[in-house]
Design a protein that fits this description.
InterPro entries: Ald_DH/histidinol_DH, CoA_reduct_LuxC. By secondary structure, this protein is α/β, with parallel strands linked by helices. The mean pLDDT is 95. It has two domains: 269 residues, Aldehyde Dehydrogenase, Chain A, domain 1 (3-Layer(aba) Sandwich), CATH 3.40.605; 178 residues, 3-Layer(aba) Sandwich (Aldehyde Dehydrogenase, Chain A, domain 2). The radius of gyration is 25 Å and the shape is globular. Helix 2 packs antiparallel against helix 3, helix 2 runs antiparallel to helix 7 and helix 10 packs across helix 11. 31% of the residues lie in helices and 20% in strands.
């Protein structure tokens, strides 16, 4: 059987030599890729002065390049994307329709309007274009500018657009990027990079992007590469073990920007139960937050705290609402959610065990691995709440909004809330408990790259913020003119 080849891209050069066989996550695909050990000397941008060519570009030049790239990322005509999509069917944690839908939408991230808004909201275009001058109260003139950096990106593979977002962030910051492709999506960044090489092989934006695959945890390679003389920042997405591994390399001069694993939750207020139509709207919204990406994203809801009440009447409302959520989830568009690729058998055993305990739980669905809604009959989440996955959610009844604070802790990323009036009551309290992103119910998967992420501003962190102080004794008190004191 012929193994597909995932070339290595190093600053405009496509490399297909020194191939070794590796396996994508899930064991469904083995492919060939250049042995990264053989190219370790070429991967880092050893001389930071070589970033200078990026500063001959204006922001308008970068927009022109991005627009041209977007035109070439048309799925119908781009053979690299088509091949990557087919191969990703085997490595991705989600199903084919979700994968293909994501590939079809990639080019939308490269519109001039979107990029302009993203950069203005996250960094400020003027700080990327030149020195921004202000006069301080002591008379000092202060100039500030954001410069690019030599950055290693350890990209997550649970959502196709993350590779393009990484490349885009690198372009607008005028940085040099090495992308370590993930085992569950080793082909997307590569397809985009190959398109860039075909389009403009000698363009500075092309020549400051490298994409390589190596097995995570390869200390022999990483200990040599992850050094301040090679890279200045590591942007790491991933699970607990992967990020814990990266921290061993962090030292003065090498910064870690951690986009670490999170859980997300939902809060459903009592007004949801004012009438059947409102219940059904909330159920559809919650189904979307549970089912998006088949619950493989940090943004996806897993436990929903529902202010139905905990008495008999309240539990009846909860169970009816749970049925509505399940029914709505089964009807979501197949580019958003489907029957999971592989329903976790350990999770299924937990869910099936709860079916035998109908005094404390109501389990709706899940017999065919399609996903399930577990309605707790007491105000506590299931013991395996942290393992909920594959479109399996737990609805927990509560009596008051105060009880809903249990939905939020230091691991909470997104909280979807319905109705908006409840959000207004809670949005100043939830961050104190750890919530990092608050959204209208149903929009958890609609990530806004114009916003902060994981309670930080990664775009600002990825840049180097440099200041230039301009002062003289005529404008600013001089330290050497201070009066001496006697002790």
């Amino acid at each position: 059987m012929t193994r597909p080849i995932a070339p290595m891209i190093i600053r405009g050069e496509v490399i297909t030599d020194n191939l070794i066989e590796v396996g994508g996550r899930g064991g469904d695909l083995a492919f060939l890729t250049p042995d990264a050990h053989q190219y370790l000397h070429k991967l880092p941008l050893a001389n930071p002065a070589r970033l200078a060519d990026l500063y001959a570009l204006t922001f308008a030049d970068i927009l022109d390049y991005a627009q041209a790239l977007g035109e070439r990322l048309d799925f119908g005509t781009n053979a690299y994307l088509q091949e990557a999509c087919e191969l990703s069917y085997l490595t991705s944690p989600v199903t084919q329709t979700i994968v293909k839908g994501a590939y079809l939408g990639l080019r939308n991230l490269l519109s001039r309007e979107f990029i302009t808004e993203m950069v203005e909201k996250t960094v400020g275009i003027r700080y990327l274009e030149g020195w921004v001058k202000e006069r301080l109260i002591d008379g000092t003139e202060l100039e500030t500018r954001c410069f690019g950096s030599r950055t290693l990106h350890i990209v997550a593979g649970n959502a196709v657009p993350l590779s393009l977002i990484t490349i885009l962030r690198n372009m607008v910051l005028r940085s040099d990027a090495i992308i370590k492709a993930p085992s569950n999506d080793p082909f997307t960044a590569l397809a985009i990079a190959r398109t860039m090489v075909d389009m403009a092989p000698d363009h500075p934006l092309t020549r400051h992007l490298s994409v390589a695959y190596w097995k995570g945890g390869d200390e022999g390679l990483e200990r040599q590469l992850y050094q301040p003389h090679n890279i200045e920042k590591i942007v790491a997405w991933g699970g607990f073990a992967a990020l814990k591994h990266v921290t061993q390399y962090i030292q003065p001069g090498l910064e870690l920007i951690s986009l670490d694993p999170k859980r997300s939750a939902s809060i459903i207020g009592k007004d949801t139960f004012s009438d059947d139509a409102t219940m059904r709207e909330a159920a559809l919204r919650l189904a979307s937050d549970i089912g998006a990406l088949n619950q493989k994203g940090c943004v996806c809801a897993r436990v929903a705290y529902v202010q139905s009440g905990t008495d008999e009447a309240g539990l009846e409302k909860l169970n009816t609402f749970g049925r509505y959520v399940y029914d709505a989830m089964m009807c979501l568009p197949n580019t958003l959610s489907t029957t999971p690729k592989r329903y976790d058998q350990g999770l299924k055993a937990h869910v099936d065990a709860l079916r035998l305990d109908d005094e404390w739980y109501r389990v709706i669905g899940g017999k065919d691995g399609e996903g399930a809604v577990i309605c707790s009959q007491l105000p506590e989440p299931v013991e395996f709440a942290a393992s909920l996955d594959d479109r399996t959610a737990n609805l927990v009844p509560v009596d008051s909004l105060d009880d809903m604070m249990d939905a939020v802790d230091a691991y909470t990323q997104t909280v979807g809330i319905y109705p908006e009036s409840v959000k207004d009551e809670l949005k100043d309290r939830m961050p104190l408990f750890g919530a990092q992103r608050i959204v209208s119910l149903g929009y958890a998967a609609a990530m806004k790259w114009q916003a902060p992420q994981d309670a930080i501003e990664p775009m600002r962190r990825m840049g180097k913020w440099i200041s230039n102080q301009i002062a003289s004794p005529e404008t600013t008190p001089a330290p050497w003119l201070r009066a001496s004191i006697e002790i």
